[in-house]
Amino acid sequence: MSESFTYRKLLRFTLPSIVMNLFSSLYIIADGYFVANFTGKTEFAAVNLILPVLNILGTFGYMFGAGGSALIAKLLGERNPERANRLFSLLVLVSSGLGFLLMVLGFLFMNPIAAMLGAEGKLLEDSVLYGRIFILALPAWILVYEFQLFYVTAEKPGLGLAVTVWAGLCNVALDALFIIGFQWGLAGAAAASAFSQVLGGAFPLIYFSRKNNSLLRLVKPVWDGRALVKCCTNGSSEFMAEVAFSFVGIIFNVQLLKYAGEDGVAIYGVLMYVSLIFSAMFVGYSNGVAPVISYHYGARNYGELKNLRKRSLVILMITSVAMFALSEALSHPFSVLFLHGTKKLLQDTVHAFRIYSVAYLFTGIAVFSSSLFTALNNGQISALLSFLRTMVFELGAVLLFPLLFGVDGIWYSSVFAELMAAVVGGIMISVLRKKYQY
């Protein structure tokens, strides 16, 4: 992390984080593919209806990981590895305990939660079935989220990539075995994902508990309430972004049930699966470069901070255009992958794709601007950007636009939200350049 980064070095350093995020998406996408093609449309809608709720719970790991990695990397930059390891160990312990508590609560209240989302009859039964099985792996899922950031801070992004790829491929294999081979249907899909999460969460506990050649190691934790609050506050922006994204996803589903029924939820599910892949590019890059920014900020290497900011914006702008073009070109093949054999539904999905893909032109800057300020230990600005992006721009648009444009208004709302988030994020980056000397 202490090096000066060229474009090539920057891409090489962040590539494992990008691919790690891509394979993390396989946990969910594999379920969607097998459920859509080997169980049925109602089961596919059920998965997409309950997943935002599960993701809200798992996102606590992202909060600990994002906020914690920024502070830990800063401590490493200040040459204080002992305190960095104590804080690292405390965060893993606290997040694990929280995971078990949320698992119990989520399991008990899964039925009323699904009903509150508007599910009825078979859709309700399937949503509860999938949710209750999947949530048994919640403590591990929180660790998976958390260690995606800690692998990079420990200068082991390649190891994190290997673990994520391994767990993701296990998920795909188990989906095929449980759903097609054992004929377990929706329950098999949930079990496959849950088991894969356990694999992905258990490995880093074992690795970092033993002697290793990374920058971090699990040691006997020492309570540090102030640092814990700082980590949670600093990571609150990423937490808020993911929670708000999932909450908005819930509102999307409610609106789609109102305007388009189960077919609308199925279409949104396809868009979200593809969005997971494309957004993983931007989130993975931002997660990968964030510890480097934190390190140089702690070491007061302001020249390198400027270099990282300039190169990151160029990379993200080029990637944004590429993601838009790719989404437009592959809208039909992506739709067929999940919804072949349903002609009207397929046509509606391709149409939604063509609108929704415009958002990718702005997503990169929207994601990076929030991540940048988290890396600079300014959780307030980062949280503000995340809040505006989802709870103001997107939520407001998804409630208003359908009244003006019908079902298409739901797809337009994402484009509007990402555009506005990119504009506000760009303004904040420009305004605060002198303060942080990047």
Number of domains: 1
Strand content: under 5%
Helical stretch tally:
19
**End-to-end CA span:** 17 Å
Q: Low-confidence parts, pLDDT < 50 over ≥5 residues?
A: none
> Globular, elongated, flat, extended or rod-shaped: what is the shape?
globular
Sheet/helix structural class = mainly alpha
Number of beta strands: 0
Following the backbone from N to C, one meets helices and strands in this order, namely HHHHHHHHHHHHHHHHHHH
- The residue-averaged pLDDT reads 90
Which sheet architecture does the biggest sheet show?
none
What is the alpha-carbon Rg in Å?
Answer: 21 Å
Q: Give the % helix.
A: over 70%
Write a concise keyword list for the protein shown above.
438 residues, mainly alpha, 19 helices
Quick structural summary:
This protein is 86% helix and 0% strand. With 438 residues, the chain is mainly α. Helix 14 packs across helix 15 (343-356) and helix 16 (360-375) packs across helix 18.
